[in-house]
Amino acid sequence: MADPKLANGLKAARTRLDLTQADLAERVGVSRKTINTVENGVFTPSTVLALRLARALGEPVEGLFWLED
Prior knowledge:
about 10% strand
């Protein structure tokens, strides 16, 4: 059985709030590139970063990230 991929709705949540990647990065204390790589599934965020992103976007963490089979 292949490992599931971590999918996310980060970009959709960010754009709903009319935030740029740089805006969100500043809110959570990371670089814009980090936000970009998380949105594109290149980088899997730590639990702490996932929770910070959820808080910054006003979303439950399980609403932003889920396992894709």
